[in-house]
Amino acid sequence: MKYDFGKPIDRRNTSCLKYDFKAENGKSDDVLPLWIADMDISAPSEVIEAIKNRAEHGIFGYSMPKRDYFEVVARWFEKRHGWAADPDKFICTPGVVFAISTLIRALTGEGDAVMLCQPVYYPFETAVTNNNRKLVVSELKNTDGFYTVDFADFERKIAENKVKAFILCSPHNPVGRVWTVEELEKMGEICQKYGVFVISDEIHADFTFGNYRHTVFPTVNKKFEANCAVCTSPSKSFNLAGMQISNIYIPDTSVRKKFEAELDKMGYWEPNILGVTACRAAYAYGAQWLDELKVYLEGNLDFLRKYLAENIPEIKLIEPQGTYLAWLDFRALKLGDKELQRFIEEKAKLWLDEGYVFGKGGSGFERINLACPRATLKEALDRLKSALKTLK
Q: What are phi and psi of 137, to 5 degrees?
């Protein structure tokens, strides 16, 4: 490989949420953090060089991306995902969750219902409730570790609650599903039937395993285009979360104007120029880096799978089809949520994402981030193995 993904990088004292805010989150200094979804892996050298070159210019005044920037973004998705996006229909925002909250305010009123399929990325719930919208949940079905949408419940909840918007997580975080075309079409048809706007978070689109392929939501059926927004960002693919850049695709002109009006209310006009620089470089020159990274991460997944089977079979891996996050089933330990959290933090000395924060279907689960050097992952699993001996 051209790139070294196993090189350890000390992230302490860099204002890093993962490592520098343990005390603020009530964690001891000796816990190994594998919770938040960024990588302990350097961004591509091509991106770093582009940022250096821009920084050397020395002037960081008011800046806006021109059409050629969005053309680079569109070309990436056409080459990687077969999605012929119109560059003129993208809007920059400082993040996907920011965009989701903005879409909720632009397209729904206070008290309107917004639906999620839990367990799901927990900031979606706060994006709904913090904006004084009604949270409606359709629980995913877990059948022997394989998650699916309960379409009967999905449609019933939409009809009964007069749902106005649905936040689709695709690929799904944390359960790792890469939705099939048929599943996406069924979700889209139900939402179309009841006039539900689909906010499709596709931030993990570039991470799929094996023969699984991500499908961009509006490519499923042309008629879905006017009824959706696609939230994209290079932050997961290239470890650029701190650059605060995302590209939100809104095909319908009237919806786009409502979104822009909401941005105006918040006084947001220009994106971070270094974020724009990093995104352009990543999508223009980062393909080889990402391809090699995916091979490395698949190796981490293989290592995790084998380690659990051979050393701690009590903990079950929910086989991920996508994302670089693994959803682990601890229910065989028969610990309550708070007991499990104490076991993970105090006995195993790990900082993971507790499953219950993703919704009630996450009780008894933990999410672990695989985007790290393999030695870090081994250290985490060794700690877990040693801690389990204290329960026997």
A: -120, 130
